Amino acid sequence: MTGLHEDPGALLPELALAVAAVAGLLAGSWLPRRRQWLVRLLGAIGCTVGIAAAVVAATGPARTVFGGSYAVDTGLAVARVVILAGTLLVLAMAGGTLSGHRRETEFVVLLLLAALGAMVLAGTDDLLLLIAGYLLASVPLYALTAFDADPAGTEAALKYYLIGALFGVVLMLGVAALLAAGGGTDYPTLARTLPGAPPVLAAAGFVGVFGGLLFKAGGAPAQFWVPDVAEGAGTPVAAFVTTIPKIGALIAAYRLLDVAVPGVAGGGLLVAAVAAGTMTLGNLAAFAQTNPRRLLAYSTISQVGYLLMAVAAAGHAALALPGLGFYLAGYAVTNIGAFAVLAALPSATLDGHRGLFGRRPVLALALVICLLGLVGTPPTAIFVGKLSVFTAAFDANLLWLVVVAAANTLASLYYYLRWIVPLFQRDGAPHPTPAGRWPAAVAVTAAAGSLALGLAAEPVVHALSGHLLR
Q1: Cα-atom radius of gyration of the chain, to the nearest Å?
Q2: Distances in Å between the alpha carbon of 213 and those of 138, 259, 302, 308?
Q3: Which terminus of the chain is more exposed, N or C, with fewer CB under 10 A?
Q4: CA nearest 64: which of 178, 181, 152, 186?
Protein backbone atom coordinates (compact mmCIF):
# COMPACT_ATOMS: atom_id res chain seq x y z
CA MET A 1 0.00 0.00 0.00
CA THR A 2 1.36 3.40 -0.94
CA GLY A 3 1.48 6.49 1.22
CA LEU A 4 -1.37 8.84 1.79
CA HIS A 5 0.40 11.64 -0.10
CA GLU A 6 0.34 9.76 -3.39
CA ASP A 7 -0.54 11.89 -6.42
CA PRO A 8 -2.78 14.60 -4.92
CA GLY A 9 -2.91 16.18 -8.39
CA ALA A 10 -5.30 13.39 -9.41
CA LEU A 11 -7.88 14.98 -7.12
CA LEU A 12 -7.79 18.52 -8.52
CA PRO A 13 -11.59 18.71 -9.14
CA GLU A 14 -12.30 17.56 -5.58
CA LEU A 15 -9.64 19.92 -4.21
CA ALA A 16 -11.14 22.82 -6.18
CA LEU A 17 -14.51 22.28 -4.46
CA ALA A 18 -12.95 21.78 -1.04
CA VAL A 19 -10.78 24.89 -1.32
CA ALA A 20 -13.72 26.95 -2.57
CA ALA A 21 -15.86 25.75 0.36
CA VAL A 22 -13.22 26.49 3.01
CA ALA A 23 -12.16 29.80 1.47
CA GLY A 24 -15.80 30.80 1.08
CA LEU A 25 -16.54 30.02 4.72
CA LEU A 26 -13.58 32.10 5.90
CA ALA A 27 -14.33 34.97 3.53
CA GLY A 28 -18.00 35.00 4.46
CA SER A 29 -17.10 35.43 8.10
CA TRP A 30 -15.58 38.84 7.31
CA LEU A 31 -17.49 40.15 4.32
CA PRO A 32 -20.45 42.51 4.91
CA ARG A 33 -23.87 41.15 3.93
CA ARG A 34 -24.09 43.22 0.75
CA ARG A 35 -20.89 41.58 -0.50
CA GLN A 36 -21.67 37.97 0.34
CA TRP A 37 -22.21 37.40 -3.36
CA LEU A 38 -18.42 37.13 -3.61
CA VAL A 39 -18.69 33.76 -1.86
CA ARG A 40 -21.15 32.60 -4.52
CA LEU A 41 -18.74 33.82 -7.17
CA LEU A 42 -15.94 31.90 -5.46
CA GLY A 43 -18.10 28.77 -5.53
CA ALA A 44 -18.80 29.25 -9.23
CA ILE A 45 -15.07 29.67 -9.90
CA GLY A 46 -14.36 26.48 -7.94
CA CYS A 47 -16.90 24.58 -10.05
CA THR A 48 -15.48 25.98 -13.29
CA VAL A 49 -11.90 25.13 -12.34
CA GLY A 50 -13.07 21.69 -11.29
CA ILE A 51 -14.75 21.06 -14.64
CA ALA A 52 -11.60 22.07 -16.52
CA ALA A 53 -9.46 19.83 -14.28
CA ALA A 54 -11.91 16.93 -14.69
CA VAL A 55 -11.82 17.19 -18.48
CA VAL A 56 -8.01 17.22 -18.48
CA ALA A 57 -7.88 14.28 -16.06
CA ALA A 58 -10.28 12.30 -18.27
CA THR A 59 -7.72 12.32 -21.08
CA GLY A 60 -5.16 10.53 -18.89
CA PRO A 61 -4.90 6.84 -17.99
CA ALA A 62 -7.28 5.29 -15.51
CA ARG A 63 -5.71 4.60 -12.12
CA THR A 64 -6.32 4.33 -8.41
CA VAL A 65 -4.81 6.72 -5.89
CA PHE A 66 -4.39 6.99 -2.14
CA GLY A 67 -3.73 3.38 -1.39
CA GLY A 68 -6.12 2.14 -4.04
CA SER A 69 -9.12 3.61 -2.24
CA TYR A 70 -10.12 6.06 -4.97
CA ALA A 71 -10.53 5.23 -8.65
CA VAL A 72 -9.87 7.88 -11.29
CA ASP A 73 -11.56 6.38 -14.33
CA THR A 74 -14.44 6.83 -16.75
CA GLY A 75 -17.14 6.60 -14.10
CA LEU A 76 -15.56 9.30 -11.94
CA ALA A 77 -14.90 11.51 -14.98
CA VAL A 78 -18.61 11.49 -15.85
CA ALA A 79 -19.63 12.18 -12.26
CA ARG A 80 -17.15 15.04 -11.87
CA VAL A 81 -18.25 16.95 -14.95
CA VAL A 82 -22.00 16.41 -14.43
CA ILE A 83 -21.94 17.17 -10.69
CA LEU A 84 -19.86 20.32 -11.11
CA ALA A 85 -21.92 21.57 -14.05
CA GLY A 86 -25.16 20.85 -12.18
CA THR A 87 -23.90 22.64 -9.08
CA LEU A 88 -22.97 25.63 -11.21
CA LEU A 89 -26.50 25.76 -12.62
CA VAL A 90 -28.04 25.55 -9.13
CA LEU A 91 -25.80 28.37 -7.89
CA ALA A 92 -27.00 30.50 -10.80
CA MET A 93 -30.63 29.53 -10.17
CA ALA A 94 -30.34 30.65 -6.56
CA GLY A 95 -28.90 34.01 -7.56
CA GLY A 96 -32.17 35.92 -7.43
CA THR A 97 -33.42 34.76 -4.02
CA LEU A 98 -30.05 34.26 -2.36
CA SER A 99 -28.54 37.68 -3.05
CA GLY A 100 -28.34 39.69 0.16
CA HIS A 101 -29.54 36.79 2.32
CA ARG A 102 -28.02 36.88 5.79
CA ARG A 103 -26.89 33.26 5.42
CA GLU A 104 -25.80 33.32 1.79
CA THR A 105 -22.32 32.07 2.68
CA GLU A 106 -23.65 29.07 4.58
CA PHE A 107 -25.89 28.13 1.65
CA VAL A 108 -23.01 28.14 -0.82
CA VAL A 109 -20.60 26.27 1.45
CA LEU A 110 -23.14 23.55 2.26
CA LEU A 111 -23.95 23.18 -1.44
CA LEU A 112 -20.27 22.76 -2.35
CA LEU A 113 -19.67 20.23 0.42
CA ALA A 114 -22.68 18.15 -0.65
CA ALA A 115 -21.41 18.18 -4.25
CA LEU A 116 -18.00 17.07 -3.00
CA GLY A 117 -19.63 14.19 -1.14
CA ALA A 118 -21.43 13.09 -4.31
CA MET A 119 -18.11 13.08 -6.17
CA VAL A 120 -16.46 11.00 -3.44
CA LEU A 121 -19.30 8.47 -3.70
CA ALA A 122 -18.69 8.14 -7.44
CA GLY A 123 -14.95 7.51 -7.13
CA THR A 124 -14.69 5.39 -4.01
CA ASP A 125 -13.04 1.99 -4.38
CA ASP A 126 -13.27 1.15 -0.70
CA LEU A 127 -16.27 0.64 1.57
CA LEU A 128 -14.89 2.85 4.35
CA LEU A 129 -14.52 5.76 1.94
CA LEU A 130 -18.04 4.98 0.70
CA ILE A 131 -19.35 5.64 4.22
CA ALA A 132 -17.48 8.95 4.37
CA GLY A 133 -18.87 9.99 1.00
CA TYR A 134 -22.39 9.00 2.06
CA LEU A 135 -22.21 11.20 5.15
CA LEU A 136 -20.64 14.14 3.32
CA ALA A 137 -23.32 13.95 0.63
CA SER A 138 -26.10 13.78 3.24
CA VAL A 139 -25.46 15.97 6.28
CA PRO A 140 -25.14 19.32 4.40
CA LEU A 141 -28.39 18.59 2.58
CA TYR A 142 -30.32 18.08 5.80
CA ALA A 143 -29.39 21.64 6.74
CA LEU A 144 -30.12 23.03 3.29
CA THR A 145 -33.59 21.47 3.25
CA ALA A 146 -34.49 23.47 6.37
CA PHE A 147 -32.58 26.56 5.17
CA ASP A 148 -35.67 28.77 4.89
CA ALA A 149 -36.69 27.87 8.46
CA ASP A 150 -40.38 27.57 7.53
CA PRO A 151 -42.68 24.77 8.76
CA ALA A 152 -42.73 22.87 5.45
CA GLY A 153 -38.95 22.92 5.09
CA THR A 154 -38.38 21.96 8.72
CA GLU A 155 -40.76 19.02 8.47
CA ALA A 156 -39.15 17.87 5.22
CA ALA A 157 -35.67 18.13 6.75
CA LEU A 158 -36.73 16.05 9.75
CA LYS A 159 -38.14 13.29 7.52
CA TYR A 160 -35.07 13.46 5.30
CA TYR A 161 -32.75 13.18 8.30
CA LEU A 162 -34.60 10.30 9.97
CA ILE A 163 -34.77 8.21 6.81
CA GLY A 164 -31.16 9.09 6.04
CA ALA A 165 -30.04 8.01 9.50
CA LEU A 166 -31.94 4.73 9.15
CA PHE A 167 -30.41 3.87 5.78
CA GLY A 168 -27.03 5.08 6.97
CA VAL A 169 -27.17 2.38 9.65
CA VAL A 170 -28.28 -0.13 7.01
CA LEU A 171 -25.30 0.89 4.87
CA MET A 172 -22.85 0.44 7.75
CA LEU A 173 -24.31 -2.94 8.66
CA GLY A 174 -23.86 -3.96 5.04
CA VAL A 175 -20.23 -2.82 5.13
CA ALA A 176 -19.68 -4.84 8.32
CA ALA A 177 -21.20 -7.93 6.68
CA LEU A 178 -19.04 -7.59 3.57
CA LEU A 179 -15.96 -7.06 5.73
CA ALA A 180 -16.74 -10.24 7.68
CA ALA A 181 -17.44 -12.19 4.49
CA GLY A 182 -14.58 -10.89 2.35
CA GLY A 183 -11.90 -10.03 4.87
CA GLY A 184 -11.39 -6.49 3.56
CA THR A 185 -13.06 -3.28 2.56
CA ASP A 186 -11.27 -2.44 -0.71
CA TYR A 187 -13.09 -3.54 -3.82
CA PRO A 188 -10.30 -5.66 -5.40
CA THR A 189 -10.03 -7.73 -2.22
CA LEU A 190 -13.79 -8.20 -2.07
CA ALA A 191 -13.93 -9.24 -5.73
CA ARG A 192 -11.27 -11.87 -5.04
CA THR A 193 -12.63 -13.28 -1.77
CA LEU A 194 -16.43 -12.96 -1.90
CA PRO A 195 -16.99 -15.80 -4.43
CA GLY A 196 -15.71 -18.22 -1.76
CA ALA A 197 -17.42 -16.52 1.19
CA PRO A 198 -20.67 -17.65 2.85
CA PRO A 199 -23.29 -16.68 0.25
CA VAL A 200 -25.92 -15.53 2.75
CA LEU A 201 -23.49 -13.17 4.50
CA ALA A 202 -22.20 -11.77 1.20
CA ALA A 203 -25.72 -11.26 -0.12
CA ALA A 204 -26.81 -9.55 3.11
CA GLY A 205 -23.83 -7.21 2.91
CA PHE A 206 -24.60 -6.30 -0.69
CA VAL A 207 -28.26 -5.63 0.13
CA GLY A 208 -27.27 -3.34 3.01
CA VAL A 209 -24.78 -1.27 1.03
CA PHE A 210 -27.08 -1.11 -1.99
CA GLY A 211 -29.93 -0.01 0.29
CA GLY A 212 -27.88 2.92 1.55
CA LEU A 213 -27.10 3.97 -2.02
CA LEU A 214 -30.79 3.71 -2.91
CA PHE A 215 -31.53 6.33 -0.27
CA LYS A 216 -29.07 8.74 -1.89
CA ALA A 217 -30.49 7.98 -5.33
CA GLY A 218 -34.12 8.28 -4.19
CA GLY A 219 -35.08 4.78 -5.30
CA ALA A 220 -37.61 2.39 -3.76
CA PRO A 221 -37.93 1.42 -0.97
CA ALA A 222 -35.93 4.42 0.27
CA GLN A 223 -37.83 7.08 -1.68
CA PHE A 224 -40.31 8.34 0.93
CA TRP A 225 -38.40 11.55 1.61
CA VAL A 226 -38.27 12.72 -2.02
CA PRO A 227 -41.74 14.36 -2.48
CA ASP A 228 -41.61 16.06 0.93
CA VAL A 229 -38.17 17.55 0.30
CA ALA A 230 -39.07 18.58 -3.25
CA GLU A 231 -42.14 20.42 -1.95
CA GLY A 232 -40.85 21.77 1.36
CA ALA A 233 -37.30 22.91 0.53
CA GLY A 234 -36.43 26.01 -1.47
CA THR A 235 -36.61 25.43 -5.21
CA PRO A 236 -32.82 25.56 -5.84
CA VAL A 237 -32.30 23.11 -2.97
CA ALA A 238 -35.04 20.83 -4.33
CA ALA A 239 -33.38 20.89 -7.76
CA PHE A 240 -30.01 20.02 -6.22
CA VAL A 241 -31.24 17.28 -3.87
CA THR A 242 -33.25 15.51 -6.57
CA THR A 243 -30.36 15.62 -9.05
CA ILE A 244 -26.79 15.79 -7.78
CA PRO A 245 -26.70 13.04 -5.09
CA LYS A 246 -28.25 10.62 -7.59
CA ILE A 247 -25.21 10.93 -9.83
CA GLY A 248 -22.73 9.89 -7.18
CA ALA A 249 -25.00 7.17 -5.76
CA LEU A 250 -25.75 5.50 -9.10
CA ILE A 251 -22.12 5.51 -10.23
CA ALA A 252 -21.24 4.07 -6.80
CA ALA A 253 -23.91 1.37 -7.19
CA TYR A 254 -22.59 0.50 -10.64
CA ARG A 255 -19.02 0.30 -9.30
CA LEU A 256 -20.14 -1.84 -6.37
CA LEU A 257 -21.88 -4.39 -8.59
CA ASP A 258 -19.33 -4.35 -11.40
CA VAL A 259 -16.09 -4.25 -9.40
CA ALA A 260 -16.63 -5.29 -5.77
CA VAL A 261 -19.38 -7.93 -5.74
CA PRO A 262 -19.70 -9.41 -9.24
CA GLY A 263 -19.55 -12.85 -7.63
CA VAL A 264 -22.56 -12.31 -5.34
CA ALA A 265 -25.32 -14.51 -6.73
CA GLY A 266 -28.50 -12.71 -7.73
CA GLY A 267 -27.08 -9.19 -7.35
CA GLY A 268 -27.99 -8.10 -10.87
CA LEU A 269 -31.45 -9.65 -10.63
CA LEU A 270 -32.13 -7.84 -7.35
CA VAL A 271 -31.15 -4.52 -8.91
CA ALA A 272 -33.37 -5.25 -11.92
CA ALA A 273 -36.34 -5.99 -9.63
CA VAL A 274 -35.73 -2.76 -7.69
CA ALA A 275 -35.49 -0.85 -11.00
CA ALA A 276 -38.86 -2.20 -12.15
CA GLY A 277 -40.51 -1.42 -8.82
CA THR A 278 -39.01 2.07 -8.61
CA MET A 279 -40.06 3.23 -12.06
CA THR A 280 -43.56 1.79 -11.65
CA LEU A 281 -44.10 3.26 -8.19
CA GLY A 282 -42.85 6.69 -9.29
CA ASN A 283 -45.12 6.79 -12.31
CA LEU A 284 -48.22 5.55 -10.49
CA ALA A 285 -47.78 8.13 -7.74
CA ALA A 286 -47.24 10.94 -10.27
CA PHE A 287 -50.59 10.38 -12.01
CA ALA A 288 -52.64 12.05 -9.28
CA GLN A 289 -50.31 14.97 -8.52
CA THR A 290 -51.49 18.53 -9.04
CA ASN A 291 -48.54 20.20 -7.32
CA PRO A 292 -45.72 20.62 -9.88
CA ARG A 293 -42.99 20.06 -7.31
CA ARG A 294 -44.46 16.78 -6.12
CA LEU A 295 -45.02 15.73 -9.72
CA LEU A 296 -41.35 16.35 -10.49
CA ALA A 297 -40.41 14.52 -7.29
CA TYR A 298 -42.21 11.36 -8.34
CA SER A 299 -40.82 11.84 -11.83
CA THR A 300 -37.30 11.77 -10.40
CA ILE A 301 -38.14 8.53 -8.60
CA SER A 302 -39.24 6.94 -11.86
CA GLN A 303 -36.07 8.19 -13.57
CA VAL A 304 -34.01 6.33 -10.96
CA GLY A 305 -35.77 3.15 -12.03
CA TYR A 306 -34.67 3.64 -15.64
CA LEU A 307 -31.12 4.50 -14.56
CA LEU A 308 -30.92 1.36 -12.42
CA MET A 309 -31.38 -0.69 -15.60
CA ALA A 310 -27.79 0.16 -16.51
CA VAL A 311 -26.63 -0.85 -13.02
CA ALA A 312 -28.45 -4.18 -13.39
CA ALA A 313 -26.60 -4.76 -16.66
CA ALA A 314 -23.18 -3.96 -15.15
CA GLY A 315 -20.55 -6.38 -16.41
CA HIS A 316 -22.90 -7.94 -18.95
CA ALA A 317 -23.35 -5.21 -21.60
CA ALA A 318 -20.87 -2.90 -23.29
CA LEU A 319 -23.37 -0.02 -23.32
CA ALA A 320 -24.15 -0.18 -19.60
CA LEU A 321 -21.57 2.34 -18.35
CA PRO A 322 -21.69 4.73 -21.37
CA GLY A 323 -25.50 4.61 -21.26
CA LEU A 324 -25.58 5.32 -17.55
CA GLY A 325 -23.13 8.22 -17.88
CA PHE A 326 -24.95 9.83 -20.79
CA TYR A 327 -28.36 9.35 -19.16
CA LEU A 328 -27.10 10.99 -15.96
CA ALA A 329 -25.81 13.99 -17.90
CA GLY A 330 -29.09 14.39 -19.77
CA TYR A 331 -31.15 13.90 -16.64
CA ALA A 332 -29.15 16.49 -14.71
CA VAL A 333 -29.67 19.35 -17.16
CA THR A 334 -33.29 18.40 -17.87
CA ASN A 335 -34.40 18.05 -14.25
CA ILE A 336 -32.62 21.23 -13.16
CA GLY A 337 -34.20 23.04 -16.10
CA ALA A 338 -37.70 21.99 -15.03
CA PHE A 339 -37.09 23.14 -11.45
CA ALA A 340 -35.63 26.40 -12.76
CA VAL A 341 -38.98 27.19 -14.39
CA LEU A 342 -40.64 26.69 -11.00
CA ALA A 343 -38.04 28.98 -9.46
CA ALA A 344 -38.76 31.63 -12.11
CA LEU A 345 -42.55 31.30 -11.84
CA PRO A 346 -43.54 29.69 -8.52
CA SER A 347 -46.90 27.94 -8.55
CA ALA A 348 -48.64 25.57 -6.16
CA THR A 349 -50.69 23.91 -8.93
CA LEU A 350 -50.22 22.83 -12.53
CA ASP A 351 -52.95 25.29 -13.58
CA GLY A 352 -50.81 28.13 -12.26
CA HIS A 353 -48.84 28.02 -15.50
CA ARG A 354 -51.91 27.98 -17.75
CA GLY A 355 -51.41 30.31 -20.72
CA LEU A 356 -47.68 30.65 -20.08
CA PHE A 357 -46.88 30.44 -23.79
CA GLY A 358 -48.83 33.61 -24.45
CA ARG A 359 -47.02 35.52 -21.68
CA ARG A 360 -43.53 34.02 -21.60
CA PRO A 361 -43.09 31.98 -24.81
CA VAL A 362 -39.37 31.31 -24.37
CA LEU A 363 -39.82 30.06 -20.81
CA ALA A 364 -42.83 27.98 -21.85
CA LEU A 365 -40.83 26.32 -24.63
CA ALA A 366 -38.00 25.63 -22.21
CA LEU A 367 -40.46 23.90 -19.88
CA VAL A 368 -41.95 21.89 -22.74
CA ILE A 369 -38.48 20.73 -23.82
CA CYS A 370 -37.59 19.71 -20.27
CA LEU A 371 -40.85 17.84 -19.67
CA LEU A 372 -40.76 16.04 -23.01
CA GLY A 373 -37.11 15.38 -22.32
CA LEU A 374 -38.03 13.63 -19.06
CA VAL A 375 -40.38 11.40 -21.05
CA GLY A 376 -37.51 10.55 -23.40
CA THR A 377 -38.65 12.32 -26.56
CA PRO A 378 -36.14 12.78 -29.41
CA PRO A 379 -33.92 14.67 -29.93
CA THR A 380 -33.41 15.35 -26.22
CA ALA A 381 -30.53 13.80 -24.27
CA ILE A 382 -32.70 11.49 -22.16
CA PHE A 383 -34.04 9.86 -25.33
CA VAL A 384 -30.52 8.69 -26.18
CA GLY A 385 -29.88 7.81 -22.55
CA LYS A 386 -33.01 5.67 -22.34
CA LEU A 387 -32.24 4.01 -25.66
CA SER A 388 -28.76 3.18 -24.40
CA VAL A 389 -29.83 1.70 -21.07
CA PHE A 390 -32.69 -0.21 -22.72
CA THR A 391 -30.17 -1.70 -25.14
CA ALA A 392 -27.80 -2.54 -22.29
CA ALA A 393 -30.59 -4.30 -20.39
CA PHE A 394 -31.57 -6.23 -23.52
CA ASP A 395 -27.94 -7.30 -24.07
CA ALA A 396 -27.85 -8.48 -20.46
CA ASN A 397 -30.84 -10.78 -21.13
CA LEU A 398 -33.25 -8.59 -19.16
CA LEU A 399 -35.93 -8.41 -21.84
CA TRP A 400 -38.73 -8.41 -19.25
CA LEU A 401 -37.23 -5.28 -17.66
CA VAL A 402 -37.10 -3.54 -21.06
CA VAL A 403 -40.80 -4.30 -21.57
CA VAL A 404 -41.67 -2.91 -18.12
CA ALA A 405 -39.59 0.22 -18.78
CA ALA A 406 -41.17 0.81 -22.20
CA ALA A 407 -44.67 0.51 -20.71
CA ASN A 408 -43.75 2.94 -17.93
CA THR A 409 -42.34 5.41 -20.44
CA LEU A 410 -45.58 5.43 -22.40
CA ALA A 411 -47.63 5.78 -19.23
CA SER A 412 -45.54 8.71 -17.99
CA LEU A 413 -46.54 10.76 -21.02
CA TYR A 414 -49.98 11.23 -19.45
CA TYR A 415 -48.93 13.23 -16.39
CA TYR A 416 -46.38 15.29 -18.30
CA LEU A 417 -49.05 16.26 -20.84
CA ARG A 418 -51.32 17.35 -17.98
CA TRP A 419 -48.73 20.06 -17.35
CA ILE A 420 -47.82 20.81 -20.97
CA VAL A 421 -51.25 21.23 -22.57
CA PRO A 422 -52.47 24.10 -20.31
CA LEU A 423 -49.35 26.09 -21.21
CA PHE A 424 -50.88 26.79 -24.61
CA GLN A 425 -54.42 27.53 -23.41
CA ARG A 426 -55.84 30.96 -22.72
CA ASP A 427 -56.40 31.98 -19.13
CA GLY A 428 -57.46 35.27 -17.56
CA ALA A 429 -56.70 34.32 -13.95
CA PRO A 430 -53.94 36.02 -11.92
CA HIS A 431 -50.49 34.58 -12.53
CA PRO A 432 -47.44 34.11 -10.32
CA THR A 433 -45.04 37.02 -10.08
CA PRO A 434 -41.70 36.31 -11.82
CA ALA A 435 -38.90 35.63 -9.33
CA GLY A 436 -35.99 37.16 -11.23
CA ARG A 437 -33.99 36.63 -14.39
CA TRP A 438 -31.45 34.11 -13.12
CA PRO A 439 -33.83 31.13 -12.83
CA ALA A 440 -35.31 31.86 -16.27
CA ALA A 441 -31.82 32.02 -17.76
CA VAL A 442 -30.95 28.69 -16.16
CA ALA A 443 -34.15 27.12 -17.50
CA VAL A 444 -33.42 28.23 -21.07
CA THR A 445 -29.77 27.19 -20.80
CA ALA A 446 -30.67 23.77 -19.42
CA ALA A 447 -33.29 23.15 -22.13
CA ALA A 448 -30.79 24.14 -24.80
CA GLY A 449 -28.22 21.87 -23.15
CA SER A 450 -30.62 18.93 -23.26
CA LEU A 451 -31.18 19.43 -26.98
CA ALA A 452 -27.48 20.00 -27.72
CA LEU A 453 -26.46 16.92 -25.77
CA GLY A 454 -29.04 14.83 -27.58
CA LEU A 455 -27.88 16.05 -30.99
CA ALA A 456 -24.23 15.42 -30.09
CA ALA A 457 -24.94 12.01 -28.58
CA GLU A 458 -22.75 9.83 -30.79
CA PRO A 459 -19.34 11.39 -30.01
CA VAL A 460 -20.25 11.84 -26.35
CA VAL A 461 -21.31 8.20 -25.88
CA HIS A 462 -18.20 7.11 -27.72
CA ALA A 463 -16.06 9.18 -25.37
CA LEU A 464 -17.73 7.49 -22.40
CA SER A 465 -17.06 3.98 -23.70
CA GLY A 466 -14.37 3.20 -21.13
CA HIS A 467 -14.43 0.73 -18.27
CA LEU A 468 -14.16 0.91 -14.51
CA LEU A 469 -10.92 -0.19 -12.90
CA ARG A 470 -11.08 -3.74 -11.60
Answers
A1: 21
A2: 11, 16, 16, 11
A3: N
A4: 186
Helices (H), 94-218: 95-98, 104-123, 127-145, 151-182, 187-193, 199-217
- State how far Cα 397 lies from the chain centre: 27
Residues 211, 412: Cα–Cα separation, whole Å: 26
Distance between CA 50 and CA 122 in Å, rounded? 15
233 contacts 145 by C-beta, under 8 angstroms? yes
Q: How far apart are CA 172 and CA 157, in angstroms?
A: 22
| pTM as predicted | 0.95
pLDDT score recorded for residue 432: 58
Is the pLDDT at 2 greater than 50, yes or no?
no
β-pairing, 63-65 vs 70-72, is antiparallel
Q: What is the pLDDT of residues 222-245, one digit of tens each?
A: 999 999 999 999 999 999 999 999
Phi/psi at 197 (nearest 5 deg)?
A: -85, 165
Work out the percent of the chain whose per-residue pLDDT is above 90: 76
Q: Do the beta carbons of residue 140 and residue 232 sit within 8 Å?
A: no
Which string of b and e fits 411-427 if b means at least 16 CB within 10 Å? bbeebbebbbebbeeeb
Query: What separation in angstroms does the CA of 288 have from each of 53, 218, 235, 282, 295?
Result: 44, 20, 21, 11, 8
2 backbone φψ class: left, alpha, beta (φ>0; ψ -120 to 50): beta
